[in-house]
Design brief:
- Helix content is about 40%, strand content about 25%.
- It has about 230 residues and is α+β, with helices and mostly antiparallel strands.
- It folds into two domains: about 5-80 and about 105-120, Nuclear Transport Factor 2, Chain: A, CATH 3.10.450; about 125-225, Orthogonal Bundle (Transferase(Phosphotransferase), domain 1), CATH 1.10.510.
- The strands form two sheets. The protein has a five-stranded antiparallel sheet. Strands 6-7-8 form a three-stranded antiparallel sheet, covered by helices on one side.
- Strand 4 (about 110-115) and strand 5 (about 115-120) form a beta hairpin.
Length: about 230
């Protein structure tokens, strides 16, 4: 199904295209108050992505109150979870994003969650081995994310697949079934995946950052809450 048609299905039928899109995008907080929509490009229609979601994406150009043109790309993630309470599942996923962000992991902008759909910023590029070895800051963030997941006791299927980059930072963009629950006992699941992805040579430097970050996270806890 066309993403644009889906967005505008509950807007004023007789209105012009951009007016209807502007109304729809304001409703889901992708377009802010007083911004004017000047263009909308559908990047991908709705398509299956993983076991519990459908994705669609678009790029827009807007005029902010200060003038000029601002470009913004975003993703809509419709949750089709096995649970009968979709709104509760969406809330759980948003909470996972906020937990990661509170511990220093970069996440996409979360615009809103509306009728079982999460609207978030589009991070353009997959995180590749070549990109990381050419950029020590990206490699360090990758290692710190692995440490954070292990600190939280997560058991991701393959956390590397859920990372994207804008070549400035590494972002965790999908916190669904592949990530799993947070809050278990500390482990080394993500560390093992990290080493397997970068190989033993690069893995040595990754492990140094990993251990430093995990120590920092543990040290920040009150003494009685520290987990071995």
């Amino acid at each position: 199904m066309s993403f644009e048609l889906d967005l505008t299905q509950n807007t004023e039928p007789g209105a012009a295209r951009l007016v209807r899109l502007q109304e729809a995008l304001r409703r889901v907080s992708v377009l802010y108050e007083y911004e004017i929509l000047v263009s909308f490009q559908e990047l991908s229609p709705w398509h299956r992505s993983g076991s519990e979601s459908y994705l669609a994406s678009a790029a827009i150009e807007v005029v902010p109150p200060t003038g000029g043109i601002e470009c913004r790309s975003f993703v809509a993630k419709a949750i089709v979870s096995w649970t009968p309470d979709i709104s509760r599942r969406v809330e759980q996923l948003c909470n996972r994003y906020h937990t990661l962000e509170s511990l220093g992991v970069h996440i996409p902008i979360l615009y809103s969650a509306d009728r079982g759909v999460i609207y978030q910023g589009l991070i353009p590029c997959a995180l590749t081995y070549d990109a990381m070895v050419k950029s020590p800051p990206l490699l360090a963030e990758f290692s710190e994310i692995a440490a954070t997941l292990d600190f939280l006791g997560a058991h991701p299927t393959n956390f590397v697949r859920d990372l994207m980059t804008d070549h400035q930072h590494v972002y965790y963009v999908d916190v669904g079934e592949d990530l799993g629950e947070l809050g278990g006992e500390p482990c080394e699941c993500a560390k093992d995946q990290m080493i397997a992805f970068v190989g033993p040579d690069v893995g040595n430097s990754c492990e140094e950052v990993y251990l430093r970050r995990k120590w920092h996270l543990t040290s920040a806890l009150p003494h009685h809450q520290r987990r071995k």
